[in-house]
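Work through what follows:
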Amino acid sequence: MAETTVTIASPGGLRVRPASRIAQEAKGYVSDIRFLVDGKEASAKSLFSLQMLEMSHGKEIVIIANGHDEQTAVEAMARLVESVVV
């Protein structure tokens, strides 16, 4: 299992378009990738699930991956979250 924590820096948070990018990218990994925000958990591969997390500016996301490419997946998801500017 690989894990990291990132803070949403984008003033607009992670809305539909950025969340869609995250879900698309996550589907390219074999590992199960989960996002945890405020005690709620969702699959990073599901746009609908990600939207239910209400990922607004300043919130922390714990990214957890479990599987063959877990470390690469966690690092890529963290970079993607940190690069979002809305």
The CA atoms of residues 18 and 84 lie 7 Å apart. The chain has a mean pLDDT of 94.
